[in-house]
Amino acid sequence: MIHKIKALNDNGNGLSVRAIAKELSISRNTVKKYLRMNEEQIGLGLANRDRPKQLDRYFTYIKHLLETFPELSAVKVMRKLKQKYDNPDIAERTLRRYVAKVRQEVCVAQPRYYQPVLDMVPGQQCQVDPGELRNVMIGGQPQTVYFVVFVLSFSRLMHLSYSLKPINTSDFIRMHDAAFRYFGGQPEELVYDQTKLVVINEKYRELALNQRMAEYATRAGFSIRACEGYDPESKGKVEAGVKYVKHNALYGESFRDTDELTDYLNHWLDNVANVRIHGTTGQLPMALYDAQERAKMRPYFALKGNADQRMIRKADKTGLISYQSNKYSVPMVWQRQQVMIRPEEGELVILSPESGEEIARHKLNQGTGQILKNKHHYRDISIPVATLEQQVLDQLGDRYGTAICALLKAGAPKIYRDQLNGLLQVVKRLGVPNEQQLQRLCQRPHLTTTQMESLLEAMQVSQASTTNNTKVSTGALKRYHNLTQVGGQHALH
Questions:
Q1: What is the full DSSP assignment across 84-147?
Q2: Exposed end of the chain (fewer CB within 10 Å): N or C?
Q3: Which CATH architecture has domain 125-296?
Q4: Per residue in 96-147, pLDDT tens?
C-alpha cells in the first residue's frame, strides 16, 4: 500500500492526494500520512507488522469461539477469556479491534444492533417481548429456550423468565407475576407487540384482547398497550431486550440441567444486565431504578395461590379430558381440541381457550379413576331411527317432514341418525319453520342439518332486517350473505 501511494504520487509529479485516495479507496489522511514517511520509517512499519500482538496467544481460542458461535459479541468473548485465562490484562478497545480482525478471517458477519427510544417517565411503562433461542445445550441435548423479557422504560431494569416449551397464557401470566415481584411493584402500563398471548386480532385498530390476559391486567391493576401490527418500532423499541438476552446471556453457553440454567440467568440479571452502564442512559439500571423509579412504582398485590387457576387440557378422541386422576366429557365438537379448565366451588368449569365462554360443567369427583360423562355431549343411539323420523314428521308435517328426511339421508347416510337428532334440536331452538321457509328448504338440491340451521337463521335475519327498529347483529348479517350465495346464485328467493 505504501509503495503504491509513493509510486502514484511520484514525488509530487503524479496524482494528487485526492486522486490517490479515490483510486485506492482510502482516506486522504492516510495518503498524507504515508507520503510524509521516509524510507527508514517505511521499513520499520513493515517490520512491526510481523511483531506478535498481545492477543495472538489467544487467537486459537477466540477463533474457535467465533467459528462455533458466529454471532458472539466482543463483550462476551472478553468475559469468556477472563474465565478461561484467569483475568488477562486486556483493554476492551484492544479486544474489540482484535475480534473484528478475527471475524474477517473466519468470515463471520456481526449483526446490526439498535438502540431503543423509550418513554422517560419513571414508573409509567414496562415493555414486554417474548423470544426464543434454539440449540441451547441442556443436559447434553440441544433444546429451544422460550423466554419473555420485561424492561422498565425509564431505568432499563430488566427481568427475564424462561420455559422449555412454547409459552401459553398461563405461563405468560406467571412470568408477569415473577417480574412484578422482582421489581417490587408494577408500572402504570405494559407495552406489547401483537403476540397472540395478548391480542387475539386487530381490525381497524380495534384490538380484541386475550380474555384471560385482560382479566389478569384488570385484577393486577395495569393497562395494556399494544403497538400497531407489523410495526414493532411504534412502541419505541426494536427487540433490543430479546437480542441482548440471546447474544449476551444464552448464546454460546451450555448447562448441566434446568437448575443450572435458572441459577445462571438469575446471576446474569443481578451481576451483568442490571449493573452494566446502559448505552442510552449512561447509568446502571439497578442504581437508576433505586434512585428515581422504585418510589414511583405502584404496589403489586400478588394473586392468592396460583397467578391463574385456569389450565389447558386436550380432549382425547372420545371427548374426555383429565383432571386430578379423573376424566370429564366435553361436547363432541371439542374432541381432540384444547380446552381451558377452571375449578370453581366443587365444580369443574370447561371453557373455550379463545373466547373464554363456558362449554361444559361437571361436579368434581373426589375419588380417582372415574369417568364423568354428560350424555348430551354424545349422540343418543338408544332411540330407533324410525322413532326419530316420526318425531320430525310430527314437527314439520308429513309432506315437508318426509322430503327433508329424504334430503338428509341422501346427503349424509352414514350419520343420518345424528342428522335427525340435530334437526330436532334446531327446531326446538329456532321454532317450527313456516310453510314458506319449508318450501325453500325442500327446493334445495342437497341439505344437511348444519345447512338447515344456518339457512333458517338467515331467513330469520332477512325477515328481521325488513322490520323497523329491529337490531340485527353483524355476525348474523354476514352469515346471511354467505348462505344466500350458492355457486354464484341466490339460494333463497
A1: HTTS----HHHHHHHHHHHHHHTT-PPPP---------TTTEEEEEEEEEEEEEETTEEEEEEE
A2: C
A3: 2-Layer Sandwich (3.30)
A4: 888 887 776 654 433 333 334 445 789 989 999 899 999 999 999 999 999 9
